[in-house]
């Protein structure tokens, strides 16, 4: 069986102690850390930007999995890549069309890092079929992007097998939103191999136990 990649979302971490929190999830067994970038336009919330990615790069060797929930993603690929992101995921809905999305993927790859594309709950998986051979990861949102701590949308998880059937073997299928010990199992049994979890991990005393309960 292939390894399930857990990517703790720092959105639910203590921002005043971010380095400590990231080291704690590393000690708890995480190999990735998920950074939610929100611009107050693409989603109705504002979080962190380039300086936070840059600071985290100095403090950790974990894979920096940056999720851009922003308009005009093409403008910010270079700074987020230079800041040290290992994976840059942008939203299909933030693009004008498939061609625009393809250009953004190429731009991300020109910095020698991995590219991910994400779809919101209302977007059909078929919309990104033409891009599946270009990306390293697809991020299926199982909540409306914008906030942590929302309830898992079961219908969205049904996109996982549809993407898996049409994707190259090595594509990473990540889910994000409402992941806990129960919804994690639903997603992995449907074919997801990466899980983002924010509130589920960071509200528990024992991060190791929380992470282990997801796989
Ligand atoms: C939501 C973000 C998520 C968020 C998940 O827009 O993309 O990464 O942190 O939070 P939980 O795991 O609490 O649903
Ligand atoms: Zn996210």
The proportion of residues forming helix, as a percent range, comes to 25-40%
Distance between the termini: 11 Å
**Rg computed from alpha carbons, rounded to a whole number of angstroms:** 16 Å
Show unreliable segments: none
Strand order of the largest sheet: 1-8-7-6-5-4-3-2
- Taking all residues together, what is the mean pLDDT? 98
Strand content: 15-25%
The major sheet is characterized as: 8 strands, parallel
Extended strand count: 8
What does this protein look like?
The protein contains 9 helices and 8 strands. The protein is an alpha/beta fold. Helix 2 links the parallel strand 2 and strand 3. The relative contact order is 0.17. The model has no long low-confidence stretch (mean pLDDT about 100). The protein has an 8-stranded parallel sheet with strand order 1-8-7-6-5-4-3-2. The radius of gyration is 16 Å and the shape is globular. Bound molecules: D-xylitol-5-phosphate (DX5) and zinc ion. The site of D-xylitol-5-phosphate has 21 residues, from strand 2, strand 8 and helix 8.
Summary?
The chain has helices at 18-27, 50-59, 77-82, 98-109, 154-157, 159-166, 181-190, 199-202, 207-212, and strands at residues 5-8, 32-38, 63-69, 87-91, 114-119, 137-141, 172-176, 194-197. The chain is an alpha/beta fold and 215 residues long.
Task: Give short descriptive properties of this protein.
single chain; about 220 residues; alpha/beta; eight-stranded parallel beta sheet; 9 helices; 8 strands; globular; binds D-xylitol-5-phosphate; binds zinc ion
């Amino acid at each position: 069986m292939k390894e399930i990649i857990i990517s703790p979302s720092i959105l639910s971490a203590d921002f005043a102690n971010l380095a400590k929190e990231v080291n704690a999830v590393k000690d708890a067994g995480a190999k990735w850390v998920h950074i939610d970038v929100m611009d107050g336009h693409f989603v109705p919330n504002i979080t962190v930007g380039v300086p936070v990615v840059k600071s985290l790069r100095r403090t950790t060797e974990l894979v920096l999995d940056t999720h851009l929930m922003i308009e005009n993603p093409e403008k910010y690929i270079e700074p987020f890549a230079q800041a040290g992101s290992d994976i840059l995921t942008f939203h299909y809905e933030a693009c004008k069309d498939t061609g625009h999305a393809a250009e953004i993927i190429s731009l991300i790859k020109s910095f020698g890092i991995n590219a991910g594309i994400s779809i919101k709950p209302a977007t059909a998986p078929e919309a990104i079929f033409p891009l599946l051979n270009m990306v390293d990861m697809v991020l299926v949102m199982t909540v409306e992007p914008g906030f942590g701590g929302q309830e898992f949308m079961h219908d969205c998880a049904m996109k996982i097998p549809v993407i898996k059937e049409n994707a190259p073997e090595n594509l990473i299928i990540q889910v994000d939103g409402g992941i806990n010990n129960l919804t994690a199992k639903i997603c992995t049994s449907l074919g997801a191999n990466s899980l983002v979890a924010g509130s589920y991990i960071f509200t528990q005393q024992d991060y190791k136990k929380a992470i282990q309960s997801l796989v």
